């Protein structure tokens, strides 16, 4: 009971995030607070490893994570999520088949987790649950699709500019070799791009 009371008082960032998508009644909020569980992650800890099924949608209250795939022994960073964002491998979560993606905490992080079964309850029991699910999934899909298109169509310097635009408040929190991997270049090439950019200011 003590844990439940703590959860009720500590979930405001999550509740406010959901409210940014849909309207919630007081009854809706009570239901939502019973469906999520809080967890603390250490830097380097994985939320998901390739080969496992993604069984939770996660909201980051504080912290930072990266998505990466292992390509012939080389880690390729594909995405980042920070505080006040949702984390999930949607393909694995929606189909409940093993993921090929790894999701790893880059900082000590505080997260809220909702299981596959509980998200079904969310859709059914929360007044605007279905609408929230549709809007949240659409946003994730558009963001991921945009990143994939950019990787194949934009030169590295443009991709780096887009990274700075998309993650202006976290660029200093991410190791440069992860940023280089995300942009799709070697760290040495990223250093040259950063020097050219700094020389223009």
From TrEMBL:
InterPro entries assigned: cNMP-bd_dom, cNMP-bd_dom_sf, RmlC-like_jellyroll
Boundaries of every Cyclic nucleotide-binding domain copy: 31-122
Any Pfam family: cNMP_binding
Source species, domain of life: Bacteria
PROSITE patterns for the chain: CNMP_BINDING_3
Name of the protein this chain belongs to: Crp/Fnr family transcriptional regulator
Protein's organism: Olivibacter ginsenosidimutans
